[in-house]
UniProtKB/TrEMBL annotation:
Protein name as annotated: DUF1289 domain-containing protein
Taxonomic source organism: Ideonella paludis
InterPro entries (alphabetical): DUF1289
Domain of life: Bacteria
Length: 65
């Protein structure tokens, strides 16, 4: 198992979507963003594991004509 620090998923697009309450850039909640530096590596990995699902849910495929 790697001992490298878990990087932040921040993309520099820091805007909270009022519909989802998640950052439009990284898909984290404000609480997760604020706590990131204090989270354990295990907790950070758990957040990372959720991000693809959150991103997919906030950007559903468009309807085909």
């Amino acid at each position: 198992m790697s001992t490298a620090p878990v990087p932040s998923p921040c993309t520099g697009v820091c805007r909270i979507d009022p519909r989802t309450a998640l950052c439009a850039g990284c898909a984290r909640s404000l609480d997760e963003i604020a706590a990131w530096s204090r989270l354990s590596d295990e907790a950070k990995r758990a957040v990372w594991a959720e991000l693809p699902k959150r991103t997919a849910a906030s950007h559903p495929p468009s309807a085909q004509a």
